[in-house]
Amino acid sequence: MSTRALLVTGGGGVGKTTLAAALGVAAARRGVRTLVVTVDPAKRLADALGAASLGTEPQPLEDEPNLWAAMLDASASWEAIARRHADPAAADRLIANPFFHAATTQFPASQSYAAAEEAVTFIDARAWELVVVDTPPAAGGIEFFTAPKAITDLVGGRLLRWMTGGNLPGRRFLFDRTARPVLRIAGTVLGTQLLDQIAQFFMDLRTTYDGVRRRAKEIEAHLRRAHTVVVTTADPTPLREAVRFFRELPDVARRPEAVVFNRTLPESWIDADPGGLPEPLASNLRRWAAEAHRQQELRAEFASRYDTRLAVVPWQPEPPTDLDALERLVKASEDLEELLSAPWA
User: Fold this and answer.
1) What's the CATH number where 22 sits?
2) d(CA 313, CA 78)
3) Is the entire prediction scored with pTM above 0.70?
4) Is 136 helix (H, G, I), strand (E, B) or coil?
5) CA angle at residue 8 from 6 to 14, to 5 degrees?
6) 2/128 Cα distance (integer angstroms)
């Protein structure tokens, strides 16, 4: 069974997690074996899907035979990455080293790379027909696509190669003769124990390079085949992130299938007539009409400038809190219905 991937990307706070869940539910109820994956630490996906909790292992949703969900833990994912790409002893040392934890949680691309690697693992498993990935919002979603190269550059970077002796035989000897003396200067300030942790971290991290490089190329190949939707709203900040995605579209990303404008006011409000309403209500109605008109013009300009398909999701008075409400969110948008009916879906 072949597995297709749908990457739901965009900036933070635009309803991306909810829409990923909604698309997953709608696809599953069309008979498609679907896995929805998120890295959202706030666990909004679990809430939206009505699950008590989600873990790193996909779990089936009760009363939904075609739907699974998982929430990735970046720290746990990096432990798996270390064990996958380093020998057992080096992996154990890396996982126990506080600098490994710092690098894999604080380096900007670390969460995105962990999410990409785990998502590709699920795709390669071929246990589902569709994997919907709620990508991390960093850099408007672009970082999810650039993370494989960024991590490869980190692990195989010039500084780290110099510190560890590159791929030369006996690089431990070279490290002892070149890098250790430099680091030893800092020992009087940092302390010997901390210095040893830094040195060991450099050496062990370097051993993962060949495996990380191969895996990064595999991830990029999957990203080129995956289908993407960019989620935004008409607010300035998320809209800038959506524009950035088109202007800085990485080579490893396909052109988006659609840009989803979430929380869109009804166009019928544009011509709303305040009639005989008292002035406070009439003024309020005119303001909402002006905002609906602004959103309409903005969407038309965006579609024209970037020659892209738009999907409009109406504003909802309450966020969806169960599976039926998630499905209704998709059904409320003819554009999303058509998206799921496309030949690739």
Assistant:
1) 3.40.50.300
2) 35
3) yes
4) coil
5) 160
6) 8
